[in-house]
Amino acid sequence: MAVLLIAEMSGSDLAADATAKALTAAKAMGGDVHILVAGEGCAGAAEAAAKLDGAARVLCADARAFAHSLAEPIADLVVSLAGAYEHIVAPATVQGKNVCPRIAALLDVMVITDISEVKGPDTFVRPIYAGNAFQEVTSADAKKVVTVRTSTFEVAGAQAAAPVEAVAAPADTGLSSWVEDTVAASDRPELTSAKVIVSGGRAIGSKENFAIIEKVADKLGAAIGASRAAVDSGYAPNDWQVGQTGKVVAPDLYIAIGISGAIQHLAGMKDSKVIVAINKDEEAPIFQVADYGLVADLFDAVPELEEKLG
Amino acid sequence: MKVLVPVKRVIDYNVKVRVKADGSGVDLANVKMSMNPFDEIAVEEAIRLREAGHATEIVAVSIGVRQAQETLRTALAMGADRAILIEAAATVETDIEPLAVAKLLAKVVADEAPGLVLMGKQAIDNDMNATGQMLSALLGWAQATYASKLEIEDGAAVVTREVDGGLQTIRVKTPAVVTVDLRLNEPRYASLPNIMKAKKKPLDVKTPADYGVDVSPRLSIRTVTEPPVRQAGVKVGSVDELVEKLRNEAGVI
Ligand SMILES: Cc1cc2nc3c(=O)[nH]c(=O)nc-3n(C[C@H](O)[C@H](O)[C@H](O)COP(=O)(O)OP(=O)(O)OC[C@H]3O[C@@H](n4cnc5c(N)ncnc54)[C@H](O)[C@@H]3O)c2cc1C
Ligand SMILES: Nc1ncnc2c1ncn2[C@@H]1O[C@H](COP(=O)(O)O)[C@@H](O)[C@H]1O
């Protein structure tokens, strides 16, 4: 049987990076992969999805009810299509995490969230306890509803476009309605696909001070991250949070500045290839995972770093 | 309106987790257990709703071992009015899966008819992030996950959600399930007098059989392993040395 991959959407556009990473996991589950693109005015997104390597077919559900990726209409749509599939997969993004458990419950199966490895069609590895342990689980359910930790899968490549077909939307029950999005526009790379991330913690001290992090990030073409303490204190927006309950990232280079290295933060970044820590406390736990540690006051070291990056 | 708050007893978030040598799970013997941090935020929000005149009664529910009573007493000490324990596991090693928890909670909802279920977005032990969405599906209700702001209207709740790109605000018809995120509020500590008072608040004990729910797991855990330990690297003496190493040794800039 086939695999249905729910595409990640950014408005009416395809969020290609997350979708293409989840596609790599979906391909490992066995069977043809069909990608479901649900949105309003999403024909372009469907065409983009059709060119991801490994997509056998794209199902395009174009309706107003799908415009903001609300869980209830998308779950009803997926359930209406589920008969033909053994696996239903989505990236473990907020959209995927929001809708997949709902789909699973409607199908009376247990959801398998945030997998980091596909061991077989019914067996998966997933982190627990903030990534301090990994469990390998086998599902006894007839259908597997799975979300995929994107930081551990490669992006699927490109192919000649697969066929796109329209699918009908079930009637919208209208349980939820969208009010507004507050999204800060930025030209920076996205946290979850960036090669370099510069992250600031509580020690940055204010929203204004985050400018010193931004300057370093600009020099490196990096995305900006933050600890929970920095977000809670209002220095950084919520979508910058890295960690157990924020974003999980694995860039080539992660620079943690004024971050102590609590397990909940490490959970989101310890798979980075190279970790740099700048902290004035030489005992800070972040140094236990850092490849390069600099014990220094960030207000001296970070401007100097920016300057020396040329 | 009545508010139902499911609270889970989990390993305390400060405890260093150790995987058992036989790979069967995580060592939970003699470790400190606490209320799941997100559930504290849910209890706090329920209390604030009562203080604002929206909630009339707060019922806390926990599913698991008998000791989960302690977690319920904490919820009662914070301000919940009464509690229900569904004793579904004989040992702490048995974690009841979100699907089974959601089925039990759906039965409790049928009995109690709350206007809102407020729960954590995620349990920090199994990191499933699923139960609220599952419960909402089983009830055929609206769901609003990852709430960082909640306003009650007539017949609806307006919820600001923490999403990947920033914030999204939605309006959900009530009754609804709302799962809470870190920044919704800062939970209060229970005062000593309230801890004493909580001992006298009603706590019902039930079993899954009372609700006719089968809690046997759908997922079998084959092994639990520790992730590879990351070796600490070197300390550099200066920014110059750092830049040099990143450029020439690591080749990442
Ligand atoms: C349920 C739950 C979920 C959580 N989820 C997350 C999550 O997803 N992500 C996350 O990050 N956290 C999360 N946390 C919070 C986590 O436990 C820590 O509290 C948080 O990561 C600490 O942030 P911090 O390192 O910025 O602050 P602190 O721990 O206060 O560390 C600040 C660091 O800055 C250093 N410092 C101070 N001044 C300077 C200076 N001038 N120059 C250089 N260094 C300086 C200090 O030595 C210290 O090490 C969660 C907690 C809970 C309970
Ligand atoms: N055994 C349980 N007892 C009570 N509430 C639970 C239980 N398991 C999960 N929950 C609730 O569901 C939320 C999400 O848990 P999970 O889906 O396991 O990550 C928790 O924050 C609790 O509010």
Oligomeric composition of the shown chains? heterodimer
Unreliably modeled segments of chain B: none
Mean pLDDT rating of chain B = 97
Domain count of chain B: the total is 1
Tell me the CATH architecture of chain B: 3-Layer(aba) Sandwich
Q: What sequence of helices (H) and strands (E) makes up the elements of chain B?
A: EEEHEHEHEHEEEEHEHEEH
Write the CATH homologous superfamily of chain B: HUPs
Determine the number of helices of chain B (DSSP H or I, runs of at least 4 residues). Answer: 7
Measured as a percent range, the helix fraction of chain A is: 10-25%
Query: Strand order of the main beta sheet of chain A, please?
Result: 7-11-6-1-4-5-12
CATH class category name of chain B: Alpha Beta
Rg of chain B: 21 Å
Please tally the β strands of chain B and state the result.
Answer: 13
Poorly predicted ranges of chain A:
none
Estimate what percentage of residues of chain B fall within beta strands. Answer: 25-35%
CATH overall fold name of chain B: Rossmann fold
End-to-end separation of chain A in angstroms reads 54 Å
Write the element-wise H/E pattern of chain A from the N-terminal end onward: EEEHEHEHEHEEEEEEEEHEHEHEEH
Function (chain A): The electron transfer flavoprotein serves as a specific electron acceptor for other dehydrogenases. It transfers the electrons to the main respiratory chain via ETF-ubiquinone oxidoreductase (ETF dehydrogenase).
Cofactor (chain A): FAD
InterPro entries (chain A): DHS-like_NAD/FAD-binding_dom (IPR029035), ETF_a/b_N (IPR014730), ETF_a/FixB (IPR001308), ETF_alpha_N (IPR033947), ETF_asu_C (IPR014731), ETF_asu_C_CS (IPR018206), Rossmann-like_a/b/a_fold (IPR014729)
Domain Electron transfer flavoprotein alpha/beta-subunit N-terminal (chain A): 3-182
